[in-house]
Design goal:
The longest helix has 25 residues. This protein has 212 residues and is of the alpha/beta class. It is 53% helix and 13% strand. Helix 3 packs parallel to helix 5. The chain starts with 5 loop residues before the first strand and ends with a helix. The structure holds thymidine-5'-diphosphate. The site of thymidine-5'-diphosphate (TYD) has 13 residues, from helix 4. Thymidine-5'-diphosphate (TYD) binds next to helix 4.
Length: 212
């Protein structure tokens, strides 16, 4: 059985990642694949426990480096218990966020741990493994902030942050996409959900030469 493919979705707040991850999983199932829909932080029993522990505290509670280790402990659990076994048996795995989120959220500030340690930790837990495709749902900062406000979810630790934080997030993501152009494809997430889903389906079809 051929190894399955690993597809990750990334983006700032309000980009509609979770909805798109579900729609992508459906699209791939219709193509005849077994599909596992998963997420980070989380995606396995222990990793979901870590997620609960992590998010049960306000921002600032965790030392930034300790926080990064928590996220990476969860990521290792997710890879070894969920992602790798599924890929090995030929299933396709769609993950709502993965390591690029750590670069974007924990690696982008001067105060924070920074990108070098994110890279080192990733190599320790995953070696040369990486997603076969990453879909970056890109939105102008004003649109993303308006969307989060209008859905009444303006209480998450990162969603609470002001525009400069979200701008830095977007800048980091776009720089990652530029540096990893073969793996990361930028999707315009300012269109409606149907339009975004179409763009994603077209990108995935092209990348993996799927039947149309
Ligand atoms: P998520 O549940 O995907 O929420 P949403 O995408 O709807 O905001 O993620 C929760 C938060 O976790 C999100 O603000 C981003 C953050 N996060 C990190 O800071 N680092 C990481 O490595 C990951 C995977 C997520």
């Amino acid at each position: 059985m051929a190894r399955g493919k690993f597809i990750t979705l990334e983006g700032g707040e309000g980009a509609g990642k979770s909805t798109q991850a579900k729609m992508l999983a459906e699209f791939l199932r219709k193509q005849g694949h077994e599909v596992i829909l998963t997420r980070e932080v989380g995606g396995s029993p222990a990793a979901e426990e870590i997620r609960k522990l992590w998010l049960s505290q306000d921002e600032g509670y965790w030392d930034p480096l300790a926080e990064l280790f928590l996220i990476f402990a969860a990521r290792r659990e997710h890879l070894t218990r969920t992602v790798w076994p599924a890929l090995k048996r030929g299933a396709w795995v769609v993950s709502d966020r993965f390591v690029d989120s750590s670069y974007a959220y924990q690696g982008n500030t001067k105060k924070g741990p920074g990108p070098d340690i994110v890279k080192k930790l990733y190599q320790q837990i995953a070696g040369k493994f990486e997603p076969d495709l990453t879909l970056l749902l890109d939105l102008p900062v004003t649109v993303s902030m308006d969307r989060v406000k209008s859905r009444g979810g303006w209480n998450d630790r990162y969603q609470l942050k002001a525009a400069p934080f979200h701008r830095a997030l977007r800048k980091t993501y776009l720089a990652l996409a530029k540096k990893n152009a073969r793996r990361i494809k930028v999707i315009d997430a300012s269109q409606n959900a149907e339009g975004v889903a179409k763009a994603i389906a077209a990108t995935v079809t092209k990348q993996f030469k799927l039947k149309k």
